[in-house]
Prior knowledge:
Layout: H1 2-20, E1 38-44, H2 49-58, E2 70-75, H3 86-95, H4 116-122, E3 126-134, H5 138-142, H6 153-159, E4 167-171, H7 173-177, H8 185-191, E5 195-197, H9 200-205, E6 211-214, H10 230-242, E7 249-255, H11 258-263, H12 267-291, E8 294-299, E9 303-304, E10 308-313, E11 318-322, E12 329-330, E13 334-339, E14 348-351, H13 354-362
Parallel strand pairs: 1-7, 1-8, 2-14, 3-4, 3-7, 4-6, 5-6
Antiparallel strand pairs: 2-13, 8-13, 9-12, 10-11
Bound molecules: magnesium ion and zinc ion.
Amino acid sequence: MISKIKPFLSLIILAGVLLSGCSANRMQSSSSSPEVKNIILFIGDGMGTAQVYAAMSVSEKPLVLESFPYTGFNNTFSSNNYVTDSGAGGTALSCGAKTKNGMIGMSPDSTVLTSITEMAKKNGLATGIVSTSSVTHATPASFVAHNVSRNNYEGIAADFLNSTADVFIGGGEDHFRKRKDGRDLAINLKEQGYDVVYTLEDLKKSTADKIAGLLAKEHMPKASEGREGMLAEMTRKAIETLSRDKDGFFLMVEGSMIDWGGHAKDFDYTISETIDMDQAIGVAKEFAVKDGKTLIVVTADHETGGLTLTGGDMEKRTVKSNFIDSGSHTAVMVPVFSFGPGAESFSGIHDNTFFYGRFLELLNIKK
Ligand code: MG
Ligand code: ZN
């Protein structure tokens, strides 16, 4: 009996693979799991619950985040420190494994890990990275690069030549073009079919399937200093471009500077960056509502600044706040918000290594 069924089953599987037009690892969804075609992961670097609640308190209108039906927590310790940095935190989210602070896409013994971006790419999905920092900075780097040190920006830039990300948009032009080795990686990117653009205007005009948007020499300006709303536009362009792939896409968007506001112990900086990322989440949600097969997960790599809210006024929309003296990262759990098919599986308390495996399951990609 079994021997008769087997060839029949393989035929069905083969047909499914041919129909879906992608490699053998990605199967058709089974009826028990929701159909997830696309995943958009937002990382608010340094965004704890106090940052979110402060943003909710001062914002004139409700945050998009408040409409997400499922919430949870994620714990963030790294392999060698109760308090993580963004390298180990990003790697846990992107590769599903703990590593030492400062490392990018590698295990503590320097073994190269495979990221969700690489797995998505291998399985026929389009992939994208968007950040307000340089794209070579720890968080976006964790989704594309492999390096023993987050500070090796030029080495990390070279990893973008592996075409792990079809679209990457952020700062970082100098790490590609003003390098100690004298190379201009923009030339290589063009050879690989990327439209390389340096302004938001040119980004918006691009019709290419592969786009390298290097919108600042290093990091982009603060939202409060001329960048407000740009993350939303960068996210819109990434979704517009990646969603042309019939196999689906994986996109990571980082609100990089929520963390920097915490380090600077600057409440307005922290909160304006949180609200700015929420606008980008709004763009993603608009797409997800129409599409119906897009999962959005919003979380953080860690909290920054030990922000606490000691008072406030809901009518005047003001908050009294305090940061810890060091303004450094803390170990508290960070919030998770999710929307779309599969969103319920992110409620509860999970480790930061949980996301990678669950994303693969939802996309029907074998590890
Ligand atoms: Mg970051
Ligand atoms: Zn930080």
